[in-house]
């Protein structure tokens, strides 16, 4: 390895004494104590970098992309960053004996598994004489699993588990929760994520990590958390005990657009709202709306579990109606506009219904709208029976309750200009049935449509641009679109300014 050295004598007041270099005979200042050597001979005879290795090995974990920093810590460092340079310098023994003036990376091939660093050091070789040298160190990259990743591939190594459950027949809430977790990177401490029948299990190597995840969970969703622990070992000599902790987080079994009948006492306590309402948002609280009067109310997690109730009808029970007439009535609350609409069933145009709705700002004659047909409906629900028996609210049950505008789509999924990221998770040990896989695909497609149609929901998530397809694939897709019927409305398009560039740092599933 070539070494570039420069001798830097102190700038002191020189005398007229001059001697000859003992090696080459060049006249030099005799007042310096450099062993009667000139600068050129000094840099050839003195090596201040002696003892500093010119080769070293850098260890990185291929699963989490962290680097081993001596002695045993694993740190995140980007290529050619200051953090990675500091790790490289810590690997070299003998640098503490010299003064580091400069250090920088030398370009190498991206896939060469080599990193080169150019280092400049200084040291006082003789009294009054400082020698500066520049040399290169080559690092060989090697892979080694970090302790956290080793635990993730080993069974029964977790110390805390968070079991998230919701007793509903679909996965829309979990899909929304997954996007919130990805947006805030709340799953970074998990060693394993396992999908089960009614929810998801998150495994952690420490109790405080699970409690931190629980704090995040309760800050974005209404959940009832219960804690349990199991003794796994006990040292009778030192009285040291080890436990496994399990946290059960049960989400409120209510989702957006559900039709619910509130307990009359609860309805009066949240603003004297009519008991028959729609759920228009589920956040830290359950927000409900009365479409007839535009009254809204918020139900906290504590209030719900004090007097729990279930939904009367869900999204799968929505019926398509055709709007015949719409007459706005004037009152407006947020993006809700009160209006009176005349609608008829899409399957039977002979019967018409009159209904007050909160969709006066988006509905026009001829549009399709989804709603609940309450005519002749019989719900086996105690709250609904109490509502019908009530003198105050018994006569206020409408025939039709409109929920949201309906956008006709092609039978085949259209290609979207955006996509969502998905978490890498372990599937259940039991093989999924074909009908379960089809149901999961249907739930995800419905969730994607909700994201397209609901601007408020879209603002709470991270949407990423779909990468451009190769030219050949793009031409084939254009030919297919020309052959298909394009007379139907393809729905909404997400504006490009609301999409983020995908940096490729997580697992992504294309849903097109």
TrEMBL record:
Compartments where found: Cytoplasm; Nucleus
Keywords: Cytoplasm, Nucleus, Protein transport, Transport
Residue ranges of domain 60S ribosomal export protein NMD3 SH3 in the record: 254-301
A GO molecular-function annotation: ribosomal large subunit binding
Chain segments annotated as coiled-coil in the UniProt record: none
This protein's GO CC annotations: cytoplasm; nucleus
Stated role: Acts as an adapter for the XPO1/CRM1-mediated export of the 60S ribosomal subunit.
Stated family: Belongs to the NMD3 family.
Name the record gives this protein: 60S ribosomal export protein NMD3
Species of the source: Trichodelitschia bisporula
